[in-house]
Write a structure and sequence with these properties.
The protein has seven helices and ten strands. It is of the alpha/beta class. Bound molecules: adenosine-5'-triphosphate (ATP) and magnesium ion.
Amino acid sequence: MYAPQQNNVTQTLIKLDKLCKSYHLDDANGKTMSTQVLFDVALNIQQGEFVAIMGHSGSGKSTLMNILGCLDTPTSGSYWLAERNVAALSNDELAYIRNRHIGFVFQGFNLLKRMTALDNVATPLLYAGINRSNSRQRALEQLQRTGLEKFAMHHPNQLSGGQQQRVAISRALINQPSLLLADEPTGNLDSQTSREIMTLFEQLNQQQGLTIVLVTHEEDIAAYAKRLIRLKDGVVVYDENHNVMNKPSPTQ
Ligand SMILES: Nc1ncnc2c1ncn2[C@@H]1O[C@H](COP(=O)(O)OP(=O)(O)OP(=O)(O)O)[C@@H](O)[C@H]1O
Ligand SMILES: [Mg+2]
């Protein structure tokens, strides 16, 4: 069901219809205030796409990503993931999908500080019930694929920002997800390291058919994606496949 696209047959991985999200917060007088942050979002994302989401701070990008990642639920409207209605899934099914089928990468890397790079990468396998030695072996192989095996026994504070993000990406990939969600993955990195991380995403998309949805504030980072979505005040105001001719090379 979640296999990457094959034989040029595209399958819809994500389908959002009239999706709305409101947050409810108590004000200083104890009165509940409701703020709507997403308005009638309709989106189809096919397996194998590489999508960038842009928009001003507060436009609802992370809110949308949290819903796509099954970390939060819409207030109304529907979300179909691999043809399954997410609202109809049990908590156990949602946890299974988050663990096995979705990889998350964040701006702040979100690595566990007390663990080595190897154990950080192995953690999702342990949650999936795989024993420690097999988990570590697979984690080491994943670190080799991302060029980090010599840092396997380093703790996060012994790694550069770019290396930490590569560890976080390795962790996100360890269960071979079909969907990678990255919320400002280069937000804490310099421009050269950002280009290296984006080149890695590009390879994962092109060579493995990994579906990637990425949030960024930077146009040159968004240029690595094949499709650009712009959010303004919770509304999709732009959604186009865009020209990747002007993408900077990793060495520039
Ligand atoms: N858990 C929450 N409870 C209440 N309001 C929230 C919550 N999370 C986000 N918001 C509000 O929803 C709006 C959209 O926030 P969101 O984090 O999705 O924006 P964003 O586009 O990711 O911004 P940024 O670029 O700064 O990361 C903001 O006004 C924010 O204050
Ligand atoms: Mg955000």
